[in-house]
User: Fold Amine oxidase from Dreissena polymorpha.
Amino acid sequence: MSAKKAPTREAAKRKSTANNEDSNIKSHKAEKKVRPCSKTSCPATAPICFARSSQLCCGNGYTSRWYHITAGEHFCNECFEHFYRSYKDGYDIYMSWKRLWTQYGNTDHSIRSYMVDQVLPYWVECNLCHKWRSVFRETDISPKFLKSYVCTKVLKHQSQAEACEAPEDFRVEMTKEVYLWPIHISCNQYLKNSIYAPYVRDFVLDSVGISPSDTSVHKYPDGVFEVRPYMQPFQYDDPIALALPPDQLSDEELLYFPEFHGIYLRYYLIIRNTILVLWCLDVKSYVTLDRVMTYINLRGLSRIWLTLHVQRLLLFLTLKGYINSGVASLPKDVSFIQGLAEEQKHPVIIIGGGIAGLSAARQLTNLGVKVKVLEAGSQIGGRAVDRNSSFPTQSYLVVGCQNNPLVVMCKQLDIPIMELGDSCPLLTDSGEVIDDKTDRRMQFHFEAMLDINKQLCKDLEKDTSLMDRFTHLHTQFKDESGINFDKMEEHLLQFHMSNLEYACGSSLDAVSALHWDQNEDMPQFQGPPVMLQGDMKAVLDRLAEGIDVCNDCKVTGVDYSGKDILVSAGSEEFTASKVIVSVPLSILKAGSIQFTPALPDYKTSSLGIGHVEKVLLKFESPFWKDRVKTSNMFGCVQTGFSFRGMFDVFYDISNKEEYMLSTFISGKAIETLRQKSDKEVADMCVECLKNMFKDASFPTAFYVSRWYSTADIGMAYSFIPVNAGANAFNNMQEDVQEKIYFAGEATHSQFPQTLTGAYMSGVREAEKIYRALVDVT
Ligand SMILES: Cc1cc2nc3c(=O)[nH]c(=O)nc-3n(C[C@H](O)[C@H](O)[C@H](O)COP(=O)(O)OP(=O)(O)OC[C@H]3O[C@@H](n4cnc5c(N)ncnc54)[C@H](O)[C@@H]3O)c2cc1C
Assistant:
């Protein structure tokens, strides 16, 4: 086998020996004096010099000293001297490399690291026979070269098949001793032509696994390099959800890959950083071993050893939802997904076809696990799809768009998203504009009360409601400072409280002051809030594609007392190996599904059932634009109602064809909604808008959600009630006897209540089940 271009005599000589370092050991031993490698535990008894740099190179003969790189890679003392001695030919080359290395790197430079960085041959996998071959060290192993590489014909008339039949170098096998191989590595390798280089420019190159000698990297100018506006592979200072530090392992990674802690860290970073950036650059394509390997531009046998770790990392990052998430199409052959330990007799049954159930189903199916989804309704989607609405959008808000799987799915399906600006002009329900100063003052006061509450919570063990806490702090502030608030300022305070009630999904009377924001210290998604402008149904349909979903299948009982689990839905009965329960909390609380044995009490007693409803309105003209020119939302400070929670914020959700607004009803106002017809609610809303905008007209269409009374739903999202404790969300995700698993918005403590949390809870449970069924290496 030879490389593509015509080999020089010198290169050909190098090549013929580099391929079979020890294969001639026996005959050498018989004929001439050999020196084994002196490194403890190195098995090479008669090494061969891969460098062939000096004319005096010993080749496969005797040298006074071998320099060890790995168990199968050594260079001789003559080649060492060639670069080390100032009077030798290689000295200047080495010195200019060293200058570059010290300028851009932090790690030690030596002849050994020079050899690894510049002289070791490359190893490449043949795309036909999948054997590994070494190629000339001068070869440009670009992605294009790697994608098309096949064993090259050595003899003039040798066919491709014959070339592929040539045995693989025996050292390749050594690298497959995954845990043994690295103990022989004496010098770290660093990546060239790194795809992630532009995004880690603030780091010293070798600290993130990139070779300091790679001049292609030095060209990147200062300034922000964005992978994609909505994707962020790396976290730099503060933790960010689904992003990782480019120069170290996260605690979670350390748990799964402890062997990479310390001296092998760079290898981990090379693989993981490459994978993350590949995903962020193109969320429509699955990241696979082949794709990753075309970007692993490393010399030496360790490149082969790394393929096994690439597989492991791909699986890990996929299971955790860092990559290959959402609706990216699964390629036919995904080698990193390990098959099940034994054939699955019964499917995993998922109860509930909302976003949580479907994300679990999609993920498990991609991982090769058989699933069946049982959905009570006549269509999938749960709370993510307003069943009776004909509006082209359901107006879902996503707080923090970067890396958010919801945004990823919209991008995968080309569904538009609308960035919400920073400003939200405030008007009163009688049309008065709230001036900036008053707005800022009351916002400051409100946030100060939240901060004080946080401080108090550190010392207080007794819980109380957020409402009691606000009332107390507000009164105390007025008493102690002597500052009074006028009527408008008090209305503004109510406006802020109302927004919090919308976020919590409950009147503040019921929300825990101690734990309402239990996720505050957990990594969150960054980037601006966005509104998903398309139809969530399209996303859910794609998630469900190819999955066995039974609609109109309302589960009434789950018996997990035996080895198999029996799931009954009316007169039908199904057998499952494991079950994921993803129904709304209200359904669990109502006891609509009878579990045998009964579920632990905490599954139904800790969290509260929250209520929020939305109103969508379609108009002939965008009458609000006159007063709300640059923003895509505006606040309405209610002064006329005796309760909070009615139409506080309006979002402009217009598309190219239609003018639309959405708004919400929350807190105590839900009671009012219950007593009114949709038309009466729309009338109240229009009344409000007419007072604010003189040209406001009656909508051409409107939709009022009524999730509180929707069959099989009965709620909006869950919240932490007074005295529920900090672990209320965490308790919900605990499995029962490794048979019954739980997903859904109420089970995700990091992103509770949301579509995002619901989606990620499905991914989380899929991982648990996959690990239980597969012996993941
Ligand atoms: C008005 C409103 C506004 C919202 N706004 C936002 C927002 O802006 N941003 C955001 O991120 N989130 C928002 N949410 C929350 C979001 O919609 C939910 O968190 C998410 O949809 C919950 O998904 P899930 O899969 O956990 O549950 P669900 O979607 O409720 O899915 C559960 C499924 O289980 C089925 N089921 C019930 N009982 C049975 C049974 N016995 N057998 C079989 N199937 C059963 C149900 O029919 C349902 O399809 C909002 C919710 C509401 C109501």
